[in-house]
Amino acid sequence: MHYYSYISLFLYFAVMLAIGLFAYRKSTANVSDYLLGGRKVSPQVTALSAGASDMSGWMLMGLPGAMFTVGLDIIWVAFGLLVGAFLNYLYVAPKLRGFTEFFDDALTIPDFFAKRFNKPDSSIRLISATVIIIFFTLYTSSGLVAGGKLFESSFGLDYQLGLLVTASIVVAYTVLGGFLAVSLTDFVQGCIMFVALVLVPVVAFFNFDSLADLNQAGFSTIAGFDQFIANATILGVISSMAWGLGYFGQPHIIVRFMAVRSVSDIKTTRRIGMSWMSVTLIGALATGFTGVAYINKFNVSLTDPETIFIYFSQVLFHPLISGFLLAAILAAIMSTISSQLLVSSSSLTEDALKRFSKKEFTQSQLVVYGRVCVALVALVAAGLAWDASNSILSLVSNAWAGFGAAFGPLVLFSLYWKSLTHRAAIAGMLSGAATVLIWIYLPVLENEQTLSSVMYEIVPGFIVSSLTIVLVSLFDSKQTENYRALYQSAEQKMQETY
């Protein structure tokens, strides 16, 4: 690899660490600053931070690679994500921003669930924090897999060494600057990802004589649009588009809404966020398709389809630009890892240590413990990612489904249903998570296949969780009036303020 590329990567790392140092000086005096940036984040930073933390390494590696294995069917996933993100901005973002402020300034998702029922030390806090820690550790490992593959493919480094380099850099700036560092680095990383996902497919296209030449090479190994439509089944389309359901329950995304300056900023945030997402998703799909066509036309050997973006960056561009494009992959990976580490850390400190320890902690002590927890979660995730054969997309899909089913229905009912009860919230969360795990791991079909081979696990998980919440709330009607009064009080405060 040319030294110009090393220069680009070095500059990228330097900028990330500089942002971490800046945030360390500005917003780590107390827990609110460290976990939510003092609720003063601009809509521009919020939008790109939400997008970058959402579209991790799977966008530049997993999604283009999926074009090789499942063909145009991956478009249904992308479309489902667009719809889900838009609905998340429209229905979850404004109410969650207001409710978390007026439910006694809730700083985390488990904190909001507990204060929603006026039970600050209840079991729902510990259970939801446990779910976050388990699934985010798995989710973080997918990002480290992507980092390891990047350094192995681009630098010829050992996979495990690349994994450790990725983890070290992202832990450094997250530990230093907390939420503000994560948000500002996400903003920069989102800009890098945007440019890269426009540049790569456009430059790759110019290696073909025409659009017809590109289509001929691409569709020689994957089904064309006519077959794509003809082969679509109701079950298959629902399963693919159901990825969009996951947005309602992703703590590392919806926590961005809690930190934005005001409810009135959500509209601007939505416009910026959806524009960014639309362009980058199209760019990722285009990268995958041009990759299939390029491999076929020029008879190139590519052992791992998930590295097609890396391959393009190395063969199509000047080394200085190659370094920038590799930085885009790191940006995608690190933006998500840092968000997940911070949310996991907040659950360990704010929702577990602080609430269930008999000891009184100062604000500075909690910030220190939060930093230690960031490193601990990263260490466990690195252990899970140590096997280089792990698939980025499969790891992401499992964690995405787990959060979507466990938290998605609960978030929506918490924001929109006055009659939701505390017992129903716990039952819904546990039933959703359990359904996903059963769907993924229990071999009940022929040849020891699991139910996830038939339908994406988020669909049954979301349905079971929703039904459980409704049924348990109806049977638990004695508690309804108290919870209605709490809900109406917070809603009235939000209306008066905004």
UniProtKB/TrEMBL annotation:
Where does it primarily localize?
membrane
Supply one GO molecular-function term: L-proline transmembrane transporter activity
Give the range the annotation lists for the signal sequence.
none
Bilayer topology: Multi-pass membrane protein
| Catalyses which reaction(s) | L-proline(in) + Na(+)(in) = L-proline(out) + Na(+)(out)
Q: Which domain of life is it from?
A: Bacteria
One term under GO cellular component? plasma membrane
Where found, per UniProt?
Cell inner membrane; Cell membrane
Bilayer-crossing residues are 6-24, 74-92, 126-147, 159-180, 187-208, 228-248, 276-295, 315-345, 366-386, 392-417, 424-442, 454-475
Q: Which GO terms describe its biological process?
A: proline transport
Q: Which UniProt keywords apply?
A: Amino-acid transport, Cell inner membrane, Cell membrane, Ion transport, Membrane, Sodium, Sodium transport, Symport, Transmembrane, Transmembrane helix, Transport
NCBIfam families tied to this protein: Na_Pro_sym, sss
Query: What family is this?
Result: Belongs to the sodium:solute symporter (SSF) (TC 2.A.21) family.
Summary of the function given for this chain in its UniProt record: Catalyzes the sodium-dependent uptake of extracellular L-proline.
Record's protein name: Sodium/proline symporter
Please tell me the species this chain comes from: Catenovulum maritimum
